[in-house]
């Protein structure tokens, strides 16, 4: 399992351009520098007036091959820690929760035809929604990359 | 010794599958308790697809329309089944913190369930979890699906106690099939539980296995459904004739 996780996340990391800084953690799932993380394994990167949201490498690895993605419509409201969509993998639907509150301004329509982008590129091509934050201070309550890496290690070690 | 977490048990017989799915989704999303729901058969044959099921890919739609077989798209993932009085449904709804040794992802949950059922089928047949199916040897008798929320998850199974051979003709060979299926048609791929265990024995043994992990408290459907929760919006729906006709046209 550890070897497969390493291979999977190394492959993910190698596909990414040098302009996108990624780190390989000791738990062998990659994190996106500059992003913040929820305990439910979603990431958010706030740039200018828009925040991009997706699920983490740790999440996609544990979920397995994503075969279907359910996303909201642009204009929909999202609330911190509440579900905005779902992914299907193996035999399960899994809720995806928003790390911040705001209004959806764009959804990644490529995920309809190619849901596997979430597995192959969770921090780049597999982004899920873009949100105009209604309360940017919510970002302060989220974990940074180092703290999230430790969180994943502890969670995996506990099981 | 720590107390076992509480699990409420509802035993049903012949309840319509749509009513069961509505109950399950509501309990998953609005109840704080752990639940086991056992429905011993459902009253009428229904086809039940997973959340992303596409009728044109999965069903012989013209036959389904001709024979007016209801088709449901359920809230959980997974594949397509045809269910009837010969199906036994067993569902677990758990708080992740009450089953803390199980990481709330599909494969650990599937693995946990297979350990529980290995106790049920101990000494009976060659029970095995094959990819995501319960099988005796290489023949499937139980199909699984899950839905996972932030703090809770549901794992539900339809067990093939017996089946009507003619009903299998409504289902196409799925594009996404487990490797062990090896392109076998339905009749060569599945088997009946009735060849292995009396019906009531299976249910008794399942409750016994559950009591090894939970403090089980039986309750009844009326207590759970009263007063009716009219605010909850269910995702599981019966597809309309028009939706099926449009799917057939591609």
From TrEMBL, chain A:
Keywords from the UniProt entry: Lipoyl, Mitochondrion, Transit peptide
One Gene Ontology CC term in the entry: mitochondrion
One Gene Ontology term from the biological process aspect of the record: protein lipoylation
Subcellular location: Mitochondrion
CDD domains hit by this protein: GCS_H (cd06848)
Keyword Transit peptide: yes
Record has Kinase as a keyword: no
A Pfam family assignment: GCV_H
Family the UniProt entry places it in: Belongs to the GcvH family.
HAMAP family recorded: GcvH
Oligomeric form and interacting partners: The glycine cleavage system is composed of four proteins: P, T, L and H.
Function: The glycine cleavage system catalyzes the degradation of glycine. The H protein shuttles the methylamine group of glycine from the P protein to the T protein.
Protein name as annotated: Glycine cleavage system H protein
Organism the protein comes from: Daucus carota subsp. sativus
UniProtKB/TrEMBL annotation, chain B:
Highest rank taxon of the organism: Eukaryota
TM spans (from-to): none
Occurrences of domain BPL/LPL catalytic (ranges): 17-214
Pfam families noted in UniProt: LplA-B_cat
Name of protein: BPL/LPL catalytic domain-containing protein
InterPro entries: aa-tRNA-synth_II/BPL/LPL (IPR045864), BPL_LPL_catalytic (IPR004143), Lipoate-ligase_2_inactive (IPR053264)
Source species: Daucus carota subsp. sativus
């Amino acid at each position: 399992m550890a070897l497969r996780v390493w291979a999977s996340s190394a492959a993910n990391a190698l596909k990414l351009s040098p302009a996108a800084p990624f780190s390989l953690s000791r738990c062998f799932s990659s994190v996106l520098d500059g992003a913040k993380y929820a305990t439910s394994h979603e990431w958010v990167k706030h740039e200018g007036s828009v925040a991009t949201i997706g699920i983490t490498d740790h999440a996609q690895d544990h979920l397995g091959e994503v075969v279907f993605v359910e996303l909201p419509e642009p204009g929909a409201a999202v609330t911190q820690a509440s579900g905005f969509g779902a992914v299907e993998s193996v035999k399960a639907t899994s809720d995806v929760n928003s790390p911040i509150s705001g209004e959806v301004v764009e959804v990644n329509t490529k995920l309809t035809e190619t849901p596997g982008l979430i597995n192959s590129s969770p921090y780049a091509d597999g982004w899920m929604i873009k949100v105009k934050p209604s309360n940017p201070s919510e970002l302060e309550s989220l974990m940074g990359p180092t703290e999230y890496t430790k969180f994943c290690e502890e969670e995996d070690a506990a099981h | 010794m720590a107390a076992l977490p509480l699990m409420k048990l509802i035993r049903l017989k012949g309840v319509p599958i749509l009513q069961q799915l509505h109950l399950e989704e509501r309990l998953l999303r609005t109840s704080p308790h752990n639940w086991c729901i056992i429905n011993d058969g459902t009253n009428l044959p229904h086809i039940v697809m997973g959340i992303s099921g596409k009728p044109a890919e999965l069903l012989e739609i013209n036959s389904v329309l001709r024979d007016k077989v209801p088709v449901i798209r359920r809230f959980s993932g997974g594949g397509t089944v045809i269910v009837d009085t010969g199906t036994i449904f067993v569902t677990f709804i758990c708080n992740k913190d009450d089953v803390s040794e199980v990481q709330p992802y599909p494969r650990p949950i599937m693995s946990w369930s297979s350990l529980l059922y290995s106790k049920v089928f101990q000494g009976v047949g060659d029970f095995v979890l094959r990819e995501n199916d319960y099988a005796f040897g290489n023949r499937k008798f139980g199909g699984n699906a899950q839905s996972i929320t932030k703090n809770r998850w549901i794992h539900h199974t339809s067990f093939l106690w017996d089946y009507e051979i003619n009903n299998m003709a409504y289902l196409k060979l799925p594009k996404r099939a487990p490797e062990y299926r090896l392109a076998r048609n339905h009749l060569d791929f599945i088997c009946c539980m009735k060849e292995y265990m009396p019906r009531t024995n299976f249910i008794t043994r399942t409750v016994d296995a559950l009591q090894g992990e939970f403090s089980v408290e039986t309750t009844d459907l009326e207590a759970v459904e009263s007063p009716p929760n009219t605010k909850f919006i269910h995702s599981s729906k019966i597809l309309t004739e028009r939706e099926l006709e449009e799917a057939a046209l591609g």
